[in-house]
Design goal:
By secondary structure, this protein is of the alpha+beta class. The protein has 14 helices and 40 strands.
Length: 712
């Protein structure tokens, strides 16, 4: 491919290496197509009966669902015919007859649920409607853009006891609330089982009965209420648990135990880190199942057939599993001994004879394995034991990357200026860290890559952006700043109302660490991120105008007042969480505070070049958030390039758009940091990218777009 594509490089040793150091020979450029194009195969799922394997793979360049023999992925055939955005999420029905998947239109997150009969060879059928939501007088409800608001389907529950049905939430009656429907995929029949006028979440038991609702009170506390729909006479909801605001984010229901009389509850009340408990619904008795003193409960292994909690995942710098069912100990020991990376059990057969394992490594693409569990052996004394199982590879998501020298991801524990522990991850160009000590041979340009949320976290493993940027010659640092999830409620709530303040300080402190460790060149640090990471980029450039050399903002909010005024309606029942974490847009004092933390307010201070990317259909961070920042910078003649994708939402789903954006971004970073860039030749044309502002700011962009008047 490189023979067909013109590659231009700014030689790293000329740009960044002090004269006293001999220049290392860079690795070959990894083509963007290998990093941002469709995976060859990904997201496999075993059918519950163990007879088939389903996975996502490109069909005519678009991700579709393929089904075939478990041990022969090459023999699989496509069963869907999507030609647009590709399918991202699917699951098997418990009778192994159907596959169901969610799909939205151009990134608007108005999800529809589809079903396809695996054996019949018929087209997929829509189980939910995309008709506009209508007001009481019958008129369609319009979005701020003027487009009609369409309902979004969410899967509430599936269960082995009701293999012919699923429970789905649909907000076609009221945009704020999802009513619960029982849907039979085979016939498409839909039955209303709970009209929801109060709850942000509905929780069902293992028979698909709605039993619990979650809502927030006006003070921001989260309430769990029993709303048992199984009795003919509906009793008033009964308070099951109250989580004060500091516990609201770290406490939630995992599911019901096999008896249906108890629930698995993740709870941080009376402690700092969230642990897993078993709570008796009748008596209120609570029994501790799994905990970690440093981090919150993160993931669960639930029995496919019974719903029993069998193992718990905790992640500090790397993932670890706590096994609760001791007969599974040999299985986890086998997996730990045979896999070098972190792993999760993605799916299991109903008889538990086979597990599908996902493995992530920092220096290789995601891989998937089939773990076969032998039957128990009856010992001479009558005790049953299970011998170790066998692990066989299924496939790798991006086999073209195998054999390439990829960057390692090194966990680093940093300290904020006020003493908080910041779990962070550093990747370096492999040719500058040949001794694998996590320090380059000399300071180099760095990209501070900020995660979204902000109520999320960065983790160890294969990360496309880390590999891409490290291969281009940059140190890449990702920081779990205060407000990130997973590190206890004290760390999480330390980020409340600290947008643009202490949360930004944590990022600056991490950069200062990188300077002291001689990782980063002080004058060549860029900040980059999506969603909250985009906000952090704008905040960094506007509130610390001399600190960063450049910024890349992807779907980031610029005005916190307009952001909160335009959240999706189905987030409205949880608005108190946003008020507590960001600020109160409903009061004059609150709006003044939010404006003080809004990058748009400080746009007149921005002096560094900025690249902004936005999806026109983003329901979370509306296009207006980017438009207003671009307009403010244009008035001051600040260097800004604006990339707008008319067929995308909160992030970029189509590989053509991902590839186009990465081409523009690496050319931008190369211009301002001095790293390497692959030519933009033919990278933009297949995408929908438009560049209404700043085409001349990035070398080669105008030509790649097809001329001055193209793609305005």
């Amino acid at each position: 491919m490189l023979d067909c594509v013109r590659i231009f490089c700014i030689a790293l040793f000329l740009c960044v290496a002090p004269a006293a150091h001999a220049a290392a020979t860079p690795d070959p450029l990894l083509p963007r197509a290998l990093l941002f194009g469709n995976p060859q195969r990904t997201a496999p799922q075993l059918s519950p009966d163990g007879s088939q394997l389903a996975f996502l793979a490109p069909r005519d360049g678009v991700l579709n669902i393929f089904v075939g023999p478990v041990r022969n992925a090459d023999a699989a055939i496509p069963i869907t015919t999507d030609t647009s955005r590709g399918i991202r999420t699917f699951f098997w029905s418990f009778d192994s007859k159907s596959i169901l998947y969610l799909q939205d239109l151009e990134g608007d997150e108005a999800w529809q649920l589809f079903a396809v009969d695996v054996r019949a060879g018929k087209p997929a059928r829509a189980l939910t409607s995309a008709d506009p939501i209508r007001a009481a007088d019958g008129t369609p409800i319009a979005l701020p853009s003027g487009k009609p608001m369409r309902p979004a389907a969410i899967v509430i529950a599936t269960c082995a006891r009701r293999p012919d049905s699923i429970l789905v939430g649909i907000n076609d009656r009221d945009p704020q609330f999802h009513d619960a429907y029982r849907i039979e995929p085979a016939s498409g029949s839909r039955t209303l089982v709970y009209k929801n006028t109060l709850y942000s979440d509905l929780i069902a038991d293992n028979d698909l009965n709605i039993r619990i609702g979650t809502r927030f009170d006006t003070g921001g506390a989260k309430l769990l209420e029993l709303i048992d729909t199984t009795q003919p006479t509906k009793a008033a909801p009964r308070l099951l648990a109250r989580f004060e605001p500091e516990d609201a984010d770290t406490s939630f229901v995992l599911g019901f135990d096999p008896s249906g009389d108890r629930i698995y509850l993740v709870d941080s009340r009376g402690r700092n880190t969230a642990a897993a408990f078993l709570l008796d619904l009748a008596t209120g008795e609570k029994r501790l199942l799994a905990e970690d003193p440093k981090v919150d409960f993160q993931g669960a292994l639930l029995n496919t057939r019974t719903g029993e909690l069998e193992a718990a995942e905790f992640t500090h710098t790397r993932s670890k599993w706590v096994v609760l069912r001791k007969d599974l100990d040999p299985d986890f020991q086998t997996l730990r001994s045979k896999l070098r990376g972190d792993f999760r059990i993605e799916s299991r057969t109903l008889d538990d004879s086979a597990w599908l394992i996902y493995e992530t490594r920092d220096d290789g693409p995601a891989s998937f394995h089939l773990y076969t569990r032998p039957a128990p052996v009856l010992a001479a004394g009558g005790e049953a034991t299970r011998p170790p199982g066998s692990l066989a590879p299924l496939f790798t998501a991006r086999p073209e990357l195998l054999g390439k020298r990829l960057a390692r991801m090194r966990p680093e524990i940093l300290r904020s200026r006020d003493g908080l522990e910041l779990v962070s991850y550093l990747s370096l160009p492999p040719w500058l860290d040949t001794d694998a000590n996590g320090r380059p041979e000399y300071p180099i340009p760095m990209v501070l890559l900020v995660h979204g949320g902000p109520w999320a976290r960065d983790e160890w493993g294969y990360r496309t952006y880390h590999q891409w940027l490290a291969n281009r010659g940059y140190a890449v640092l990702s920081v779990n700043f205060r407000g990130s999830t997973g590190f206890g409620k004290a760390f999480l709530t330390a980020g409340d109302r600290e947008w643009g303040a202490k949360m930004l300080d944590d990022l600056i402190d991490a950069c200062e660490w990188a300077k002291r460790e001689e990782i980063a060149l002080p004058d060549r640090i860029a900040i980059m991120g999506g969603s909250y990471g985009g906000y952090a980029t704008l905040a960094g450039l506007s509130m610390r105008p001399d600190y960063f050399a450049a910024g890349v903002d992807i779907v980031g909010p610029s005005n916190l007042v307009t952001l909160l005024n335009s959240i999706p309606p189905y987030w409205a029942p949880a608005i108190e969480r946003f008020v507590r974490g960001v600020g109160d847009h409903r009061t004059e004092e609150g709006r003044a505070f939010l404006l003080s933390r809004s990058p748009l307010t400080h746009a007149d201070k921005i002096i560094r070049p900025l690249l902004i990317a936005q999806g026109a259909n983003d329901p979370r961070v509306k296009q207006a958030e980017s438009d207003q920042m671009v307009e403010a910078l244009r008035k001051r003649n600040v260097a800004v390039t604006y990339v707008l994708f008319p067929d995308e939402g909160h992030g970029f789903a189509r590989p053509e758009n991902n590839t186009a954006f990465s081409a523009i971004a690496e050319a931008f970073l190369s211009t301002h940091l001095g790293g390497r860039a692959e030519s933009m030749d033919n990278a933009i044309t297949p995408s929908s990218a438009t560049v209404p502002v700043g085409r001349s700011q990035i070398p080669g962009l105008r030509e790649a777009l097809g001329g001055e008047d193209a793609r305005r």
